[in-house]
Amino acid sequence: MTTKIFVRATMRDDLQQAWLQHLRDFDTKHPGCHFDVGIDGPEEPMADMLRRLQVEPGLTFTELFKRAKWDD
How many helices (H) and strands (E) does the chain have? Predict the structure, then answer.
């Protein structure tokens, strides 16, 4: 049996790296888990954020999504 858990996290910019590394550490310790992670910020394109937020071991990416344009 498997369970899907959905998390939407809002945090200060200085905590992004630590949170992603925590998730990656869990993933490494528990083979067979699968994570879909999205990241979005108001001022930085997602591709730039992914390059900046490096974790060990590195993440693999199979799909990138374009940010939706919303009219407020």
Answer: 2, 0
Place of tokens 């997602």: 46
Distance CA 17, CA 38 (A): 14
- Extract the tokens encoding 57: 């071991």
Note the pLDDT of residue 49.
74
Burial 36-52 (b: 16+ CB within 10 A, else e): eeeeeeeeeeeeeeeee
Task: Enter the tokens of residue 54.
Answer: 């490096």
pTM score above 0.90: no
Contact between 39 and 46 under an 8 Å Cβ cutoff? The reply is yes
